[in-house]
Design brief:
Elements lengths: L21 E13 L5 H5 L2 E12 L18 H12 L7 H12 L5 E10 L9 E8 L2
Antiparallel strand pairs: 1-2, 2-3, 3-4
Helix pairs in contact: 2-3
Amino acid sequence: MVAEPWRGARGMTFAPDAARGLRHVFVRGLTVQARLGVHAHEEARPQRVVIGIDLAVRDEAAPAGEGTDEIARVVDYGAVAATARRIASAGHVRLAETLAERIALALLTDERIATVRVSVEKPDVLEDVTSVGVAVERTRF
């Protein structure tokens, strides 16, 4: 399945763009147990939370080159997932918006990341819907 581009603020598209020197890095469906929500039971026990991350990452080899085949030159999606997992499990957060913002801002500490979009979904909250949640975008532009 090919990821559909997502157009964010200022026309930033989360899709590879050689002319702008960007690649699209993503983590889909990261499922964690997190204490998230405003209700007492949500603070008391973890629930299933699904996180999605899209990154517009500067590509030093674009538009016409090929970079070195070394992990150090790219944003490691394993590290991206680990950051989100660590933040989501750090303790109770009342708002999905706050959790998404914390993850986005943590990822922006990598200067290669130009823009980040984070979605946080709670799939088990309402029995007659697939999920509820929020998406936030943060950028260094």
